[in-house]
């Protein structure tokens, strides 16, 4: 492989500084390019599975669908469910693509966090029949944030809690003002399967799933491994620090340290 690095005689300080900067940029570009290639190949791989299933059922339908009512029903519902999974996957890929290109729009405004938390939890409770969902504490605090993505971020954590907690489990949320006066700690917790120490960092990587072999077909959950990378991007955009407490078989707690907005609205920023 050709080496495009620039070398200069050691005496020429400014020039060597320039060369360092250039070499650093080149490295970053190469890493970025590799990541992009990997993203495309992982995404294609993930899309291949539902397409294969859809094609399989289409064959089945065209052969037996007219004569066998059972085949017809199962074929239609399977195709529908695979297509829905595919649609969700595509939405997530598009979100990350926009984020990467800095085209994902955030409309930040001053909002009352407790109202947002209350609303997300109320809706979560409404749609969750298999687990209990409770809001244990909801301290007030004004934050400067984008409503849409903040809700999306909370839903990702909560839906994971439902997915990775056996039926009958407990999902809780707690928002408490920290003594530093500048933050609210939002804790989203479950008493589900938990995440092993060695996976706790990796789950935020794109496409990473702890048990990638389990799919809907064998009674597992279907996942994309993209939810947490989207959630962590949203947190990053809002200056929210994420930490995790989790133990296998015990459950998972996500701790989100959310900065409160100052007294005055932040100056309009054009970035
Ligand atoms: P997925 O679509 O697979 O849920 P995520 O990026 O949201 O993708 O999560 C990545 C992986 O992290 C999941 O596949 C799962 O193994 C693990 N995980 C996430 N949330 C939890 C949780 N609350 N409890 C246990 N495991 C979790």
TrEMBL record:
The protein's Enzyme Commission number: 2.7.13.3
Catalytic activity: ATP + protein L-histidine = ADP + protein N-phospho-L-histidine
Uppermost EC category: transferase
Main location: membrane
Domain HAMP residue range list: 1-34
UniProt domain Histidine kinase: residue ranges: 42-262
Keyword presence, Cell inner membrane: no
GO molecular function annotation: phosphorelay sensor kinase activity
Keyword annotations: Kinase, Membrane, Phosphoprotein, Transferase, Transmembrane, Transmembrane helix, Two-component regulatory system
GO cellular component, one term: plasma membrane
Location(s) in or outside the cell: Membrane
Lineage: superkingdom: Bacteria
UniProt-recorded name of the protein: histidine kinase
Originating organism: Selenomonas caprae
Source species taxonomy: Bacteria, Bacillati, Bacillota, Negativicutes, Selenomonadales
């Amino acid at each position: 492989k050709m080496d495009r690095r620039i070398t200069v005689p050691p005496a020429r300080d400014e020039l060597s500084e320039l060369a360092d900067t250039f070499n650093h940029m080149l490295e970053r570009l190469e890493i970025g390019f590799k990541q992009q290639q990997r993203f495309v190949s992982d995404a294609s791989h993930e899309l291949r599975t539902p397409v294969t299933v859809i094609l399989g059922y289409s064959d089945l339908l065209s052969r037996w669908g007219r004569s066998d009512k059972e085949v017809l029903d199962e074929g239609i519902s399977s195709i529908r469910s695979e297509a829905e999974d595919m649609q969700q996957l595509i939405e997530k890929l598009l979100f990350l693509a926009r984020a990467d290109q800095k085209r994902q729009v955030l409309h930040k405004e001053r909002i009352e966090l407790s109202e947002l938390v209350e609303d997300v939890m109320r809706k979560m409770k409404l749609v969750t029949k298999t687990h209990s969902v409770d809001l244990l504490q909801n301290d007030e605090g004004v934050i400067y944030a984008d409503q849409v993505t903040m809700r999306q971020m909370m839903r990702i954590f909560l839906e994971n809690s439902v997915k990775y907690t056996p039926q009958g489990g407990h999902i809780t949320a707690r928002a408490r003002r920290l003594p530093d006066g500048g933050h609210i700690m939002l804790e989203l917790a479950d008493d589900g399967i938990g995440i092993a120490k060695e996976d706790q960092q990796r789950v935020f990587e794109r496409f990473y799933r702890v048990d990638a072999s389990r799919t809907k077909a064998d009674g597992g959950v279907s996942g994309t491994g993209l939810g947490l990378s989207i959630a962590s991007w949203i947190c990053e955009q809002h200056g929210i620090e994420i930490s995790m407490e989790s133990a296998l078989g015990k459950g998972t707690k996500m701790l989100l340290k959310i900065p409160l907005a100052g007294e005055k609205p932040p100056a309009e920023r054009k970035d």
